């Protein structure tokens, strides 16, 4: 039951023989810097989790002066917000800082994982002491938050979090250096950085320059600090050497990154729930919101720029969810899992049968709750919905319920150690409010809420004139949100009167009852998962290792540059070139399909036309590593640990990686480092950055 080709960074030493057999030429001590102190720099120390709150994608240092390479789509939000601030569209036009002083302040942070410490004993003691599922879930929350808070106390520039690795079994404390001053160095224009758009998303062949360059800054003494003009480029302990030769067919490659959640051990009942309930609901909801965005982005360039982040995120998830449904059924994953469970019952008897039966019952209960949950979610503005609804719900919960509690009793997001990031996230959401979009989403939320008597009262509180309500609330919430979240009495008084805060308050008891019921079911589910894992290990063959599902923490994966059989008599080779960019762009210009997704800058077309040798420059690479969302921006390295590509996608048949890695279908896609160097050094003639990348 080997379900992973991506392993926790701490397992590097254990899997080293396998990696060596595949082609790795490094030692474990060259790669993993989290398990023990090392006198020499390690590759893991060059990895960063990057985003507005330090999460979102992966990046890596490629120079000792804090230069970070990641994806264009990972940096998208930073570039979008910078565009709004400067009243310039850096997303569409691109950006290249020819001097250090031109590098643009961003809203991003980056976190470096420095240590992993097992804290399972402390968490398990809490678990074993509490039989009630809801109380146990809350006790785990309190215990893990307390451990993280203790580790982070009085530590400047540090973020600590406890992550569940295996439910009710394994818990690890991750400590991360938190760099808060991250600036934009280089971003190709959208027409190159997102070449192919939605048409090519999750497809192969690809020709997308999905990369961007950022830089981390720190105080002159090297310590992390918020943005300041006095800050200097961060001196990273480790950085990855950029290869000028790239990689070829069958070459060994490996990558590190922060992949999101997988469900490799999920029972058939959970897969059925995803296939029949959760994923179809998201497809429907995301499709509706994308239709709204397409209409409302036409109002003005500002509206379009404000909606771009939501549009890109929803577009990606919409296509990914549809692909997951197709691949789950094509590969018969549910049937496969049912077969495994039948085999387990045959070996383990009633204990396994009872656990699996109860898991099925839990997912039936969750299925019965799903319509009501969807209505509540709509009223909370989640998944790119109304920022006004979302802020109203958050403020109601905080000012009317959580603020009065002792910090150690609050829900995790409202604890003092997390308030700063919560404020940062919601400030952007409120800044991005487009009134017509919010009005339409709120009207939809009210409509589906009115199908439930317990939720219908929000309609009267919000009122018939939704536009007037949104305009008024946006002014009040924007002016008072941050102050209210920091405990200012006047600001809290102002937001308590807001109609969206009051609407959320009118159904809060219903929300709380539903949340606690679901939390208790998930807690019981996790206890059953732990039992199933125990039985699987007891009856597994010799040498079978159970690695935890991905959860946003640092992982290593490995594979080879490899094509795949896409269909009968159709084989896809693992490399594309600039010639393919030119062909797609020319075809689109001639009306052959794809339209604006394949527009290409005239300057780029002229450059390649004037130098035919540029047409042979590789653009994208295909390889058999095990990646999921969160691996966006992962450095793809050769056997010596040199950068050959930057991971950004999977091809469509690899969309089932959340559930299973397949040697035949799982292929990841990266932008070839040679295309990166061509765009930075030739297309934009930025010799300063090019020389830094190549250490000249």
Automatic annotation (TrEMBL):
One of the protein's GO biological processes: proteolysis
This protein's record includes keyword Protease: yes
Coiled coil (UniProt feature): none
Transmembrane segments: none
Short name of any one Pfam family annotated for the protein: Peptidase_S46
InterPro entries named among the record's database cross-references: Pep_S46 (IPR019500), Peptidase_S1_PA (IPR009003), Peptidase_S1_PA_chymotrypsin (IPR043504)
Domain of life: Eukaryota
Keyword annotations: Aminopeptidase, Hydrolase, Protease, Signal, Virulence
Family to which the UniProt record says this protein belongs: Belongs to the peptidase S46 family.
PANTHER family xref list: PERIPLASMIC PEPTIDASE SUBFAMILY S1B
Protein name per UniProt: Dipeptidyl-peptidase
Species per Swiss-Prot/TrEMBL record: Triparma laevis f. longispina
């Amino acid at each position: 039951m080997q379900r992973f080709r991506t392993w926790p960074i701490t397992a590097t030493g254990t899997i080293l023989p396998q990696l060596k057999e595949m082609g790795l030429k490094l030692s474990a001590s060259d790669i993993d810097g989290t398990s023990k102190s090392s006198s020499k720099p390690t590759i893991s120390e060059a990895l960063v989790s990057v985003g507005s709150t330090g999460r979102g994608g992966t990046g890596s240092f490629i120079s000792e002066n804090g230069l970070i390479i990641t994806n264009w789509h990972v940096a998208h939000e930073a570039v979008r917000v910078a565009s709004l601030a400067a009243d310039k569209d850096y997303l569409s036009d691109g950006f290249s800082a020819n001097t250090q002083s031109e590098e643009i302040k961003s809203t991003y942070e980056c976190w470096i994982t420095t240590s992993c410490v097992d804290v399972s004993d402390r968490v398990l003691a809490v678990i074993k002491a509490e039989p009630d599922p809801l109380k146990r879930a809350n006790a785990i929350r309190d215990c893990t938050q307390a451990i993280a808070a203790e580790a982070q106390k009085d530590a400047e520039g540090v973020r600590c979090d406890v992550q569940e690795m295996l439910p009710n079994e394994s818990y690890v404390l991750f400590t991360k250096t938190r760099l808060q001053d991250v600036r934009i160095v280089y971003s190709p224009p959208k027409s190159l950085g997102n070449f192919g758009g939605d048409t090519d998303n999750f497809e192969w062949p690809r020709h997308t320059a999905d990369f961007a360059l950022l830089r981390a800054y720190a105080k002159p003494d090297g310590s992390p600090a918020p943005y300041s003009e006095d800050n200097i480029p961060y001196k990273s302990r480790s950085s990855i050497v950029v290869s000028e030769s790239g990689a070829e067919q069958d070459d060994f490659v490996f990558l590190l990154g922060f992949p999101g959640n997988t469900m490799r051990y999920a029972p058939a009942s959970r897969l059925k729930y995803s296939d029949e309930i959760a994923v179809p609901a998201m497809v429907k909801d995301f499709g509706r919101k994308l239709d709204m965005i397409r209409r409302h982005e036409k109002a003005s360039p500002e509206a379009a720029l404000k909606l771009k982040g939501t549009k890109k995120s929803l577009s990606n998830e919409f296509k990914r969810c549809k692909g997951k449904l197709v691949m789950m059924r094509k590969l018969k994953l549910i049937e496969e899992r049912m077969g495994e469970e039948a085999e387990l019952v045959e070996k383990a008897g009633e204990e396994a049968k009872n656990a699996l039966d109860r898991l099925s019952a839990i997912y039936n209960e969750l299925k019965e709750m799903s319509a009501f949950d969807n209505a509540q979610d709509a009223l909370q503005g989640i998944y790119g919905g109304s920022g006004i609804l979302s802020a109203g719900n958050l403020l109601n919960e905080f000012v009317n319920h959580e603020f009065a509690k002792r910090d150690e009793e609050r829900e995790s997001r409202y604890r003092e150690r997390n308030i700063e990031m919560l404020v940062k996230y919601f400030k952007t959401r409120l800044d991005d409010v487009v009134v017509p979009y919010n009005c339409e989403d709120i009207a939809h939320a009210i409509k589906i809420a009115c199908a439930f008597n317990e939720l219908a009262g929000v309609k009267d509180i919000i009122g018939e004139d939704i536009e007037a309500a949104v305009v008024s609330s946006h002014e009040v919430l924007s002016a008072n949100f941050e102050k209210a979240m920091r405990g200012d009495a006047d600001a809290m008084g102002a937001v308590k009167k807001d109609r969206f805060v009051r609407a959320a308050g009118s159904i809060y008891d219903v929300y709380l009852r539903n949340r606690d019921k679901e939390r208790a079911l998930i807690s019981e589910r996790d206890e059953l998962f732990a039992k199933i894992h125990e039985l699987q290990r007891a009856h597994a063959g010799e040498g079978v290792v159970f690695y935890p599902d991905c959860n946003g923490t640092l992982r290593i994966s490995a594979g080879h540059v490899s094509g795949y059989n896409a269909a009968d008599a159709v084989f896809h080779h693992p490399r594309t070139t600039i010639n393919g960019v030119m062909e797609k762009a020319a075809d689109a210009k001639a009306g052959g399909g794809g339209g604006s997704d394949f527009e290409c800058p005239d300057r780029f077309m002229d450059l390649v036309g004037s130098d035919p040798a540029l047409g042979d420059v590789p653009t994208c690479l295909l390889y058999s590593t095990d990646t999921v969302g969160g691996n966006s921006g992962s450095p793809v390295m050769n056997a010596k640990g040199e950068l050959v590509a930057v991971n950004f996608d999977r091809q469509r048949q690899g969309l089932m990686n959340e559930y299973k890695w397949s040697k035949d279908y799982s292929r990841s896609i990266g932008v070839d480092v040679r295309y990166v160097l061509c765009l930075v050094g030739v297309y934009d003639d930025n010799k300063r950055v090019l020389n830094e990348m190549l250490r000249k």
